[in-house]
Write a structure and sequence with these properties.
- This protein is mainly α.
- It folds into 2 domains: about 45 residues; about 120 residues, Cytochrome c-like domain (Cytochrome Bc1 Complex, Chain D, domain 2, Orthogonal Bundle), CATH 1.10.760.
- It is built from 8 helices and no strands.
- Helix 4 packs across helix 8 and helix 7 packs across helix 8.
- Bound molecules: heme C (HEC).
Amino acid sequence: MTIETFKLRPILFGILLSTAFLMPVLDSISEAAGLNPRMRHRLSTQEHHGLGSEGPGVCPQQRFTEAAPEEIRNQTNPVEANYQNLEAGRSFFHTDAQPTACKVCHGPGGNGLGMMARGLNPPPRNFSCNETMKDISDGQLFWIIKNGSQGTGMPPYKLNLKDNEIWQIILYLRQFSSSK
Ligand code: HEC
């Protein structure tokens, strides 16, 4: 080993060490500024699939939703719980409901943590929370899906879904929890 390389060693080591320390710092700065391409890719694939966060969601959930008129609140689901109706409900929930599929806010697993849920106050209902869902009647669900929940992010679907289709969705929503 020559004297020169021996002298260079600590310098090279220093450069290596500072890069190792600097990389994560630079990474997080560019991430915060929205400049990190890896981060951008992660977000765009998430949007593409309409995913949200997984997990049980907030349960029990505080609920201040307006009550449906009594005669509607007391209605039970007139649609038969068969495979065809459930599958129709599933399609509306995940893709077909216009203008926005339910999963975008309520999450693919019904936990209320869909992609667009962030920033919504009150948050979307967590359909997988038995403790909250067991006290909400079919008629109540029907009324809110049809008319929306005023002053919240929950839009009305009466122009885009027939009554029969809303009941099909309710069959499907009940699958997320053990409440009937
Ligand atoms: C843009 C976001 C968004 C979309 C899309 C959306 N919801 Fe909601 N939903 C909400 C929010 C926010 C609430 C909470 C409203 C409240 O607290 O009163 C809610 C509440 C509900 C409730 C609770 C009613 C109650 O009495 O507690 C039901 C049922 C519901 N949504 C069904 C649906 C269905 C079915 C679809 C699709 C056809 C859908 N939502 C699409 C945001 C959304």
